[in-house]
Amino acid sequence: FGMVAVNRTKVTGAPIPFGGMKQSGLGREGSRLGMEEFTEIKYVCRDWA
Q: What is the pLDDT of residues 4-42, one digit of tens each?
């Protein structure tokens, strides 16, 4: 199991889930909406005063 990229500017991490339609390998879970399911929003504020 793993990912291989040749001559690609966009590289994704190996632990990021991926799947797709037919032979693509880039589909539902690699899309923006799919990644939102695995993303947690966190806000960090700092008082510089």
A: 667 766 666 656 555 555 555 555 565 677 677 777 888
Q: Give domain status of residue 4, yes or no.
A: no
Domain count, the chain: 1
Torsion of CA 3, 5, 14, 30, to 10 degrees: -90
User: Residue 29 is part of which domain span?
Assistant: 12-49
> Which of 8, 39, 47 is closest to 25 using CA atoms?
8
* DSSP assignment letter at 29: T
